[in-house]
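In this supplementary section we document a worked example of the pipeline. Step one takes a protein sequence of length 325 as its only input; no multiple sequence alignment statistics are reported here. Step two produces a three-dimensional model, which step three serialises into structure tokens for compact storage. The input and output of this example are shown verbatim.
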Amino acid sequence: MQRNNGNLVGFRSDIKVVDCTLRDGGLVNNFAFSDEFVKDLYRTNIKAGVDYMEFGYKASKDIFSKDDYGKWKFCDEEDIRAVVGNNDFDLKISVMTDVGRTDYKNDILKKEDSVIDLVRTATYIHQIPTAIEMIQDAHEKGYETTVNIMAISKVHEDELDKGLELLAQSDVDIIYLVDSFGAFYPEQIRRLTDKYMNIAEKYGKRIGIHAHNNQQLAFANTIEALSNGASLLDATVSGMGRGAGNCYMESLLAFLRNPRYNLVPVMDFVQKYIQAEKEKGSIWGYDIPYLLTGVLNSHPSSAIKFVNGKRDDYSRFYQELLDME
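The serialised model returned by step three reads:
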């Protein structure tokens, strides 16, 4: 497998854009998106040439109550089909499974019975054996598969090397580099992408990137990874996602040179929905508390609590974080 780094003039045919607005953005509003929002986002992605649309999680109803979350926490087949029908378009449909939180043996149907194309598995480093079992299940049912190793900024390098080796020997198609805490800088992403690409080239896999925007680097880190060979690129409309949010879809499509991608439908969607979503009370995006958790490589949960509590004593919060360290 020859590495394809590309340049700023041409485009790479191996690049695929993944819209994660419903899944990562759902963490902002408990997946309480209106049907109109979801249907329009689907149509927007088709018009924009986006390659994959992630509808949400396949969460276990034995663990999570349907009374507490919107339908995209669970992504039942009939709910997806109510939006996409048989999905007679090039856009592929994706869902996220979560180690320990998904009844994957029962809730992931055989591909022949589902409109879903791609099953993604989120795992922490110590859960990799279970993740491999889940990947194998999805692979045998006929799906494309990815694995997202979360919180790698907290993982010792030798553990990461061993984890990547195990995953690369599985049937997974794509291994994701995930900056869960928005803690990485571009030069770190460059080094990590090289590490991931080396293992990918050894076993014939591809690499993806999923970045968070705590230090306003999600877009920069995404294009750093793609310039070093990553081919699946996650983004959300206006960066909508947990805490500081994610790489902006608008920025990514404006950057990519492939004429297949069209920025205009996304801008129209932003105009129609994003400010209205914020007025409903959905909060995301760069802010000092998320900057501080990113700099300190900390989980953003404390910053989310700070923002939701309408605090503005940033220096005190910084000291609280240092005390936690």
